[in-house]
Amino acid sequence: MMRSVFVLFLWVCCCNLVLAFDYDGYKKTTLSSIVTESDVIIDSHGEDLGLEILTPMRAVSFSNQILSLPAPCDTNALFQILVMQGHERNSLPAVSFCLEIENESGQSAVMYVQDSLVSAMQSELIAGDVITTWSVWVFSNGFDRKPYLLLNAYRKGLPDA
Length: 161
Known about the structure:
This protein is of the alpha+beta class. It is built from four helices and seven strands; from the N terminus they run αβαββαββαββ. It is globular.
């Protein structure tokens, strides 16, 4: 009996952790809006050089097509920015993958993908799929003129699909 109660307790705790993600804390937007705002941020400094760090970073949600599945990438800039903004390095999630997303107009952005999401993404998705994302816009890159985001959660398809 006690074992059953303990298992039930663990199950309830795990479900609450999964359900605890605050989807409502992310502003619904479009990749087009983010790219337009990114261009304004980059242009406001008069040069297409360097990284324009968003302070504060912005939690955003939108749907778009993925161009490729997550692949290993350099995440040094992401972690340097997060640490500069006061986050403890050892409290940050493992991130060593990226993917690129694109809208119907050909505008694109880069998403850093938490390692905990990669396995599911690689088994559930193929290049060209539409996903809804919940991510944090961290910076815009003046060199390639793209916004860079950290993916926190995703769902295959459109939000109401």
